Amino acid sequence: MTSSPPDPLTIVVTTPRSDTVEIRLDGEMDDETSYEVVDTVRQLLRTHRGVSRLELHCGPTMTGDDPTSLAALLMIRRLAAADEVRVILTGRQPLPGDGGPG
Questions:
Q1: Could you give the dihedral angle defined by the CA atoms of residues 94, 73, 81 and 41, in that order, rounded to the nearest 10 degrees?
Q2: Which of 61, 76, 45, 72 is nearest to 10 (CA)?
Q3: Which of 19, 41, 70, 74 has a CA that sits 20 to 30 A from residue 33's CA?
Q4: Which branch of life, at top level (predicted)?
Q5: Measured at the alpha carbon of residue 83, what is the angle toward residues 76 and 18, in degrees to the nearest 5?
Q6: pTM for this entry
Q7: What backbone phi and psi angles, to 5 degrees, belong to 81?
Q8: If DSSP states are collapsed to H, E and C, what string results for the chain?
């Protein structure tokens, strides 16, 4: 039985309000694409100085449980915190073992 290749990562950026940037992620976030996401956030924070809120929306096919992807999310948090921007992460699937009390 063969498995299908993972979906490529798509990054869609919108600015629904002057104080908010939304980034929608869908597909596989791996070593290569996690750097792309961090660079996207870095550029957005430079060009949208009045932003106080960064919303990262993980789509239904968003994957990325490896250490590089998790490190990318941490780096995004640090970049945002340096600019006093609040990060909201939605739609992320729980990691194995994160199902709550067992």
A1: -130
A2: 61
A3: 19
A4: Bacteria
A5: 95
A6: 0.79
A7: -60, -35
A8: CCCCCCCCCEEEEEEEECCEEEEEEECECCHHHHHHHHHHHHHHHHHCCCCCEEEEEECCCCECCCHHHHHHHHHHHHHHHHCCCEEEEECCCCCCCCCCCC
Q: Which two tokens stand for residue 14?
A: 């919108």
Do 9 and 28 contact (CB within 8 A), yes or no?
yes
pLDDT at residue 52, as a whole number: 96
Set out the domains of the chain in order of their start, with CATH numbers. 10-90 (3.30.750.24)
How many angstroms separate the Cα of 23 from the Cα of each of 15, 70, 77?
A: 9, 16, 14
Separation between Cα atoms, residue 102 and residue 61, nearest integer Å: 26
